[in-house]
Amino acid sequence: MTTSEEPAVRLRGLHRTYGHRGTTVRALNGVSVDFPAGSFTAVMGPSGSGKSTLLHCAAGLDRPTGGEVHLGGTRLDDLSETRLTLLRRQRIGFVFQQFNLLPALTAELNVALPLMLGGRRPKRAEIRVALADVGLADRLGHRPAELSGGQQQRVAIARALVTRPEVLFADEPTGALDSATGREVLTLLRGMVEERRQTVLMVTHDPVAAAYADRVLFLRDGRLAGELVGPTPQAVAERMTGLEAEASGAVR
Ligand SMILES: Nc1ncnc2c1ncn2[C@@H]1O[C@H](COP(=O)(O)OP(=O)(O)OP(=O)(O)O)[C@@H](O)[C@H]1O
Prior knowledge:
Layout: E1 9-20, E2 23-35, E3 40-44, H1 51-58, E4 66-71, E5 74-75, H2 81-91, E6 92-95, H3 107-117, H4 124-133, H5 149-161, E7 167-171, H6 179-196, E8 199-203, H7 207-210, E9 215-220, E10 223-229, H8 233-247
Parallel strand pairs: 3-8, 3-9, 6-7, 7-8
Antiparallel strand pairs: 1-2, 1-4, 4-5, 9-10
Helix pairs in contact: 3-4, 3-5, 5-6
The chain binds adenosine-5'-triphosphate (ATP).
């Protein structure tokens, strides 16, 4: 269980290398950071800086090649595949850029699925509440193709939160949405943080999206390259411009 002193997620000396055509890519190169319970953190950085790798390692979707990942009091990086699958199912929620809903299932069944996979027979009422919480009480019987992009992402958020996970990981959750719809989704995530103390960790390219978080972490070449607490879109954009200039070699 997570106690008040314990961060929701703790990363220590995280390394992730990939072998690619005989060369080694260091996607993460020694990242240590804590994500407090009830906090909303955005991760930003130039393309290829390691954002998705960090999110995937922290969520137990990928294994680091070195270092430690702790979720509450549990160390993830050395769990067996079976225990890791179980832990992801019970304690982690994940939202993807492309929603990843099952096209043949209604919104109601998409949301019920994680509970069913966990061996439970979900009560109709709890699925309805989960969908009502994201403003979709009237869309229970719709399939993904019958919903707008923003509505599909809301179903995906309801699905990710129905198990009451300790941490919600979101990889570019507004990347496939127009800016107005994206803002609605971000307002929803912000509300989950404020009303439920939901811990949220989000990768984004968008300074406006990042400014919804309490804190923005910047990555460069697989390492932490600073943070902004209480970010504004302007401050985030300025940092990103600096990092991108460094990444392209314009500044050293
Ligand atoms: N499966 C893989 N095999 C080989 N290299 C990989 C793999 N996944 C990621 N990489 C490399 O690791 C580095 C970090 O990738 P990652 O996807 O984490 O970056 P990112 O910051 O999320 O990028 P983007 O903003 O473009 O999505 C990149 O150089 C990428 O090419």
